[in-house]
Design a protein that fits this description.
Length: 279
């Protein structure tokens, strides 16, 4: 962290730094490094205002030092284009392949108001997998086998592999989830995939049962459950096919996963209502 006496150098907010304010907190994001800093708005705004007005700022504060360290505040002659070029040079030539998405089904058991998957146009254009909409087990087997070969060639040996089970609602095709997970475990055992390979399931949680929760727990699958805001907002956006609310079912599924020791998080679709009521 930089510190010292004030000098005649002038500083400015980097063009790569973006600020977001919510209540009494300001978040600053470096769009190149993706570093994020959360700060008290009263403390931060005074410094940022001085910087934006081109005033000389005392450099002996922890706040100023932190912003300089992360290249969020830079000297006037700082060249963002050069910074971007240098970052590109560091990563060029590295063909990293560490993530595989398996879209297990085109179908869903909900009809979320903002969803683009099951529009009438999409229904006419896309009936995947020979009209069934569900991926047969032969496809994940081939895809995972190819993924293991390509990552061996195009990813550092120590890097983590991530296989994401996606949809639609992937639990509608649970037999293929079981087959894919067991095949992944087989390749890990045979060292075609590294031991740190992670499996992630993104689900709306409505179809979760105790047997499925046990399977997820036994195979150490990471889970993201879709939850959009508070109960009222959730039920406005996410409903069953017959327009019934499903919030409590999703909350119970989340608790069931926690009960079985599953590492579970929240997948949230952001919209103005969710952001305004964020807690």
């Amino acid at each position: 962290m930089l510190s010292g006496k004030a000098d005649s150098k002038k500083y400015r907010l980097s063009k790569l730094c973006h600020t977001f304010k919510k209540d009494n907190v300001i978040a600053l994001l470096n769009s190149i490094s993706l570093e994020v800093v959360f700060m008290d708005s009263k403390e931060t705004e005074g410094v940022l205002n001085k910087i934006e007005c081109g005033e000389i700022v005392e450099q002996n504060s922890d706040l100023f030092g932190k912003l300089r360290e992360l290249n969020m505040v830079v000297q006037n002659d700082f060249d963002e284009k050069l910074e971007l070029f240098n970052m590109t040079q560091k990563t060029s030539g590295r063909e990293l392949l560490t993530v595989l998405y398996l879209v297990l089904t085109d179908h869903c058991n909900l009809k979320c108001s903002y969803c683009f998957i099951e529009t009438p146009v999409h229904k006419k254009q896309s009936q995947l997998y020979k009209g069934t909409g569900n991926m047969p087990k032969e496809i994940p087997e081939s895809a995972i086998k190819m993924f293991s070969k390509l990552t061996t060639m195009h990813a550092p040996k120590e890097s983590q592999r991530l296989i994401q089970l996606y949809g639609g609602e992937p639990l509608l095709n649970f037999p293929v989830i079981k087959y894919a997970v067991e095949y992944i475990k087989k390749l890990v055992t045979e060292t075609y995939l590294p031991e740190n390979t992670k499996i992630v399931l993104i689900t709306n949680g409505v179809l979760l049962t105790e047997d499925i929760a046990k399977f997820i727990s036994e195979h150490k699958i990471l889970v993201g459950v879709s939850v959009d805001g508070t109960e009222g907002m959730f039920n406005d956006y996410r409903k069953s096919k017959d327009d019934k609310p499903v919030f409590h079912k999703v909350v119970n599924s989340f608790k069931l996963l926690k009960q079985y020791g599953v590492q579970v998080g929240i997948s949230c679709t952001l919209n103005p209502a969710v952001v305004d009521n964020f807690k």
